[in-house]
Amino acid sequence: MRAPRLGRLPFRALLLLAFILVGALLGGTALRAVIVLDQLTAQRTAWADAAMQLTANAQTLAERTVDMERAARQSLVLSDRLLRRRFEDESGNARTALRRLTDQGLPGKLAKGWVDKLDEVAGLLGGRVDDPLERERTVALRFRDFDGINSAISREVQHMIQSRNTALSERLGSARSRLMQQVLIANALAAALAAGLGLWLARPFTRMEHAIVGLGENRLQDPIDIEGPADVRRVSQQLEWLRLRLTELDADKARFLRHVSHELKTPLAALREGVSLLEEGVTGELNPRQHEVTRILQHNAAVLQERIEALLRFNAAAFDARQLQRQQVDLLALLQDLAEAQRLQWQARGLQVVVTGEPLVLPVDADKLGTALANLLANAIRFSPPGGTIRLALRSLAGRASIDVSDEGPGVAPPDRDRIFEPFYRGQRQPQDAPPGTGIGLSIVKEYIAAHGGRIELLAQDPQPGAHFRIELPHA
Q1: Exposure check for the chain: N or C terminus, fewer CB within 10 A?
Q2: How far is the CA of 418 from the CAs of 45, 402, 405, 428, in angstroms?
Q3: What pTM, to 2 d.p., does this model score?
Q4: Predicted confidence band of residue 3 (pLDDT cuts 50, 70, 90)
């Protein structure tokens, strides 16, 4: 049976697997450290025991040598067989201690010298005793040589202990360095593994976030296909279904508006034509009251037609907002071009338009952003009193660009501030020398700014009269 691919596992299983891998790496390093420490502790304990045994054997050899000398000399002077047997017993014990020292690393030259001296003493004890006192002095001289050999053996034992302690310390230091390197490498690998797995697992969520933001900003033209764990794939498929559904609903809405507008415009055109015929007297002369009725009908029909055309323009703007054609645009130059394009309008009212700021290039759709700014400028011209000043200010802030459009008109009434961007909503303060607007200009501005990922707001009323709008666009 084939093992499942990682991409087919759910996110929780992959996260658990990541924790297991990191934990196994760190746990393996910790286990390795414990084993090494146990081995070093066992070696140190074993060597301490060996050092104690070396010292004890060296002391035993020295003590047995003293006992041998005493037994040998007394046996010669007293000619006592029990003392001679005691000498032999002590010499056997001394040979056993010497053999243990040899097994633990004592150089054979020292051991051979000691054994040769012992054999020489034993030979003196085994011969005919003609002059016991003279032979006792000879044996005493031989045992003086034992003192030098035993001293040499003791020095060699101390040297062996010191050398092995030094070797063990070096081994401990080397093991500690290797263990520290392994711990550092394991920590680095664990950090790299955790970072790599974290980035790999977080990448689908970043793409999912971008997809959700795209849906929220009504960018429905880009398919959603997010690679990742099984549950992330399911969410990706659900987001794709939602995108298709929103696209269908948006198309249905646009189609409905087109059909309704078409169905309304046809009878409305017939109604306006019929009212025109009545007003012209084609069906007979009308009295003054009938003329008044026909004028009311003609006015309302014109208003209704204007509303239908405004609805179509708003629907077209909402659709176009999703079709941005971004390019690098100098916003300061764009503001200057818009002010120049409407020069005749603001000069006819004796207005001044002041554009301030430093050049700032951003990736935007010049046509749609220009339309939004042109609508704000047209509103400012429409509401400004003769001789007033309109200001367009561009600033670069942290992570965003700010565009302020302010005038010296009557401003927005407090009850209208929360609804000023709603489609077809017209505020209370309307200029007396101009026909009423359709109420979609600011709605189109909001659609185009939102499509760029920005926002527009009506700032609080300043002590000076007028409306003050601020647009903020992200740098990227």
Answers
A1: N
A2: 84, 21, 18, 13
A3: 0.45
A4: very low
